[in-house]
Specification:
Length: about 350
Amino acid sequence: MSEHKLFDAAMVILEGMTGDSRTAKSKPKGESRACFPLDWLTDLGREQAAAFARCWRRLPIDARRDLIGRMEEEARKNFELDFLAVARIALDDPDPEVRVHAIRAFWECGDLKLVDRFLQFIEKDPQAVVRAGAAAALGAFVERSELEEIPALIGERITARLIAVIRGSDELEVRRCAVESVGYSSNPQVRAILENAHAHAEERMRASALTAMGRSADPSFADIVAAELRSPSPVLRAEAARAAGLLDLKRSVPQLIELLEDVDPAVRGCAVDSLGEIGGEKARTALEKMQKEAAGAEWDRIEAALENAEFQDSLGALPLLDLDGGEEEEDDQEDEDDGEGE
């Protein structure tokens, strides 16, 4: 069946689900699910997107939530699926949960027009959950600015707004997401911001500070991260373990190995990932030992970490260019050329 026919078939099903959203809330959850493969709605053209938008506005709220939520999830699993046309429509949805899913659906989209839209969400959306989602989404643009993939002025503008949010009076969740996103920035104000966030009374903010420290690539946070690996809080241990890998803290390998036996599965998972990021013989040996008793998703995660560790180790084994030797060779060649000229 052609792509156009698949889209038409999806629209027939969706049209059958349209109705008064006030009564739709009482429907059983299963009746709110669009029962067709989501890839029938991928890569929509302009006319298809317009037709979908007309139908979308008449779908029950539960159906809209279910559809955009599953699209966000599937797009992360399969990079070939493109639901951005649907996500753009959902950004204007009156339901905050739908708007949040739509924002998250753009997690790998580089469209710079989204920057203004997300900044507007931070400044004007009445729902904190949407403002928080927008603050989190802007982190990708800050990172791209630091990597010189987009103009530095865009990153600076976003960073300035995120700092204003952090220092403002918005709800904790919004400020917390802003802290995580600003962690990518090399702005000189960021270090103090992250240190203050780590000293916050709320554990969630301290966890976000650790997330941001990992993203910062700033080795000055090494002591804080290493100390939090022994935190009594599993949330903080997990974020510290994740940050240790991002910061390539080789000295933390013994502690990360200990965390492979942590009572909390999230902590164990972050320790596995970070040992893969850091690599080295001790990390690989510990992961191989753990894998012998693992199964299912845990086994797969360890296998991915081992492959990553092997890759990291192969990078370290590459011979460095002998710059001094090269310069000497150039000097010798120049002397020979001068001699020939005489």
